[in-house]
Amino acid sequence: MTHKNTSRAVLIALVVVAGVTGNRLSNAELAAQAANAQGRSVPTFEVDRTWPKVPPQWKLGDPSSIAIDAQDNVWVLHRPRTLVKPEDAAKAAPPVIVFTTAGNFVKAWGGAGNGYEWPEREHGIHIDYKGFVWLGGNNCPTNGLPGLKRVADDQLLKFTQDGKFVMQIGHSNQSKGNSDTRNLHRAADVWVHQPTNELFVADGYGNHRVAVFDADSGAFKRMWGAFGNKPVDDDHCEVVTPTTFSDPGPQQLSIVHAIRVAKDGTVYVADREYRRVQMFTKDGKFVKQLVRNSAPFARDLALSPDANQQFLYVGGGDGVFIVDRKTLEIVGNIQPAGMIGAGHQIATDSKGNLYIAQTGAGMQKLTFKGMSSASSR
Fold first, then answer.
1. Does residue 56 contact residue 108 with C-beta atoms inside 8 Å?
2. Rounded-to-integer distance, Cα 238 and Cα 29, Å
3. DSSP structure string for 239-257
4. pLDDT value at position 338?
5. What's the pTM value of the predicted model, to 2 decimals?
């Protein structure tokens, strides 16, 4: 990493570190943490301009989310109905399309079928440790988007990797709000935690909570909101972004846009419009948060694939921030030449490569190039 980028990361750390714990830190403490970040080795990346190779007979709509399976295949969920030109719509690929890490096409499937309600506006995809594919949507009845039914995506779907339907949690247009234990409400993202076989849901655009279900039966288990509070209803189609920001911020979540659960059970939630990442125990006890209110932040989340998962990647501004997973200190910034942005959703494979789904801009692979050395920074 260049000295310029390192200095930028240090300056960012100085600005936001007071929001990491919710307490104000002294100038001496700020300086000490900035010094630690400056001397730390962090992952480096470059854009793979050849990835992926979309079959010529197909076109992709807006890529919404990306997931990685155990073989490091890259699963892309896109929105075929955003292809508005008739000649493009006629060539729309199925909404789930899979590539190898080298960018070669593997397979594609998805869409309306018998026995389940496919989401109107595809949003999130996740491959769990058993290989099942989870996906959901965020359509709102009054969003006015062309070609979409006037229903809310209040369901999550579970499939095999060949597209065979397994289970549905919730039903389209049936949400009763944040107290509802049967339905979601425009859920944005999910993650299955292997040790407990629990499905953690970033729920999401209509609700403002984390909801947890049994990944086999779909039975509801628990929920929580910001700071572990009881979630409160505030349902509207519009994305409401505040004009001013505070620390620690509101006592309720805004758009719960992404969720990741580390191997040790720590839960990370991207509270997008309030520009903060909140950290919880798997039972919903609030631990700490990272606030960066000077620019858009907490757009998406991913965990580094090393054994200790030492880094949390957080989309913000024009790039992806590298955050110490345990302390929630910003220690670096990913923004190689040619990067398409912070992403709508992001994912990492076992080799450390980072994948970006950026609605409106496409998708991209950032190849992991190793760790920076202290002497070169």
1. no
2. 40
3. ----SS--SS--SS-S-EE
4. 97
5. 0.90
Could you tell me if 35 and 55 are in contact, meaning their C-beta atoms sit under 8 angstroms apart? no
Percent of the chain past pLDDT 70, that is, above it, reads 88
240 forms beta bridges with none
Residue with tokens 């714990």: 21
| C-alpha–C-alpha distance, residues 109 and 48, integer Å | 25
Spatial separation of the C-alpha atoms in residues 155 and 124, rounded to whole Å: 12
How far the first Cα of the chain sits from its last, in Å, is 5
Phi, psi torsion values for 323, nearest 5 degrees: -120, 135
Domains of the chain: which residue ranges?
3-376
Between CA 376 and CA 120 the distance in angstroms is 49
Mean pLDDT value of segment 326-342 = 97
Average pLDDT across the chain, whole number = 90
Sign of the CA dihedral with 40 first, then 41, 46, and 48 last: negative
The dihedral sign for the CA sequence 61, 64, 69, 71? positive
Helix (H) or strand (E) holding 16: helix 3-16
Of the options 3.40.50.2000, 2.120.10.30, 3.40.50.2300, 3.90.850.10, the CATH number for the domain spanning 3-376: 2.120.10.30
- For the segment 145-156, the average pLDDT, to the nearest whole number, is 93
Residue 354 to residues 3, 288, 338, 368: CA-CA distances in angstroms? Answer: 23, 26, 14, 7
Q: Which residue has the tokens 């992952």?
A: 43
What residue has token string 């995809």?
Answer: 125
Strand-pairing partners, residue 355, are 347, 365
Residue closest to 332 by CA, chosen among 105, 38, 119: 38
Secondary structure class of 33 (helix, strand, coil): helix
Please tell me whether the peptide bond between 80 and the residue prior to it is cis, using omega within 30 degrees of 0: no
pLDDT tens by residue, 183-193: 999 999 999 99
Instruction: Say how far apart CA 21 and CA 271 lie, in whole Å.
Output: 16
